[in-house]
């Protein structure tokens, strides 16, 4: 290599060496994020005691999941329906609410917005029981529509906040130009504002979809029919049944083994002794008066008192 070509290639080598740490860090992060996925995929086809795949490698667990109760496709359909309804309700309400908070002035606007955000500070599980009672009065218990309403309600504070800041980032001049050109408020919102806040809508929709698809606590409380269960609840029920079968099989395997009575540990010995004394005393008090008892090596009747 000539000196001229070396000088010409030096910037390229310098840039490549300068990017090496970034490539190393990116590769390490990729391995960290992909390892759980690879591990789950390998564990799903490997042999596990108490599962449908007890020996070798195969798709026994997947066949069990496909044939479980109502079937995998039914549970996938339930989750998809709940997620779509949640996204539609969240986008519709948060779009109008965020536009109203960003563009209109009315008494108590900031107070109402703070109350909406205050829902985020309430623990998630504490609201499910009152909502369960409310859905019962509305005849929406054990229904996918009622579950979608509950999930959309929990997404509305964050969604309204996102849509308000998205509308506030759009210059008012664009909306005023549309109004001058003859558009009404609804027309300006549909033709001018919606394309401008499309990134905010996509963000809110993704958050709502992921939250509705992965939620487990709300379906566990609000859904009692196995035919209407979403996918996370069905997988949890299947896993619980598999663990119960595994424990039962392990218990049956130990029934034939040697049994040995172990003495209670030293801290529990006084408690066990007192319990035995109390039980014996209670049994002695409950002894029938006409039952013969042994005294002095011979059996007599209990003396009667006058």
From TrEMBL:
The chain crosses the membrane at residues 21-42, 75-99, 111-132, 144-163, 200-222. Keywords: Cell membrane, Membrane, Sugar transport, Transmembrane, Transmembrane helix, Transport. Residues 76-279 form the ABC transmembrane type-1 domain. It is found in: Cell membrane. The keyword Ligase does not apply. Residues 244-258 have a biased composition (Basic residues). It is a multi-pass membrane protein. Residues 244-306 are annotated as: Disordered. Its main location: membrane. Residues 287-306 have a biased composition (Basic and acidic residues). Pfam families: BPD_transp_1. Belongs to the binding-protein-dependent transport system permease family. This is Multiple sugar transport system permease protein.
């Amino acid at each position: 290599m000539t000196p001229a070509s070396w000088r010409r290639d030096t910037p390229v080598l310098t840039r490549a060496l300068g990017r090496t740490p970034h490539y190393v860090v990116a590769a390490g992060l990729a391995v960290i994020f992909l390892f759980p996925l690879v591990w789950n995929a390998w564990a799903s086809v490997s042999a596990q005691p108490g599962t449908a795949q007890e020996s070798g490698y195969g798709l026994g667990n997947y066949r069990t999941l496909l044939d479980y109760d109502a079937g995998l496709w039914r549970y996938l359909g339930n989750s998809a329906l709940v997620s779509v309804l949640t996204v539609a309700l969240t986008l519709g309400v948060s779009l109008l609410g965020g536009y109203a908070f960003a563009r209109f002035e009315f008494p108590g606007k900031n107070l109402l917005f703070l109350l909406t955000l205050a829902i985020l500070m309430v623990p998630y599980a504490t609201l499910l029981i009152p909502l369960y009672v409310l859905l019962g009065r509305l005849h929406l218990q054990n229904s996918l529509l009622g579950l979608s309403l509950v999930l959309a309600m929990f997404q509305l504070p964050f969604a309204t906040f996102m849509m308000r800041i998205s509308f506030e980032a759009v210059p008012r001049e664009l909306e005023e130009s549309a109004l001058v050109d003859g558009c009404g408020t609804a027309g300006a919102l549909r033709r001018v504002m919606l394309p401008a806040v499309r990134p905010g809508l996509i963000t809110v929709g993704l958050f709502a979809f992921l939250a509705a698809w992965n939620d487990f606590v709300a379906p566990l409380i609000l859904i009692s029919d196995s035919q209407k269960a979403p996918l996370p609840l069905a997988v949890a029920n299947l896993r619980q049944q598999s663990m119960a079968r595994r424990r039962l099989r392990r218990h049956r395997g130990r029934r034939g083994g040697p049994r040995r009575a172990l003495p209670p540990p030293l801290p529990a010995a006084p408690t066990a002794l007192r319990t035995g004394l109390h039980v014996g005393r209670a049994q002695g008090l409950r002894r029938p008066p006409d039952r013969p008892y042994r005294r002095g090596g011979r059996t007599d009747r209990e003396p009667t008192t006058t």
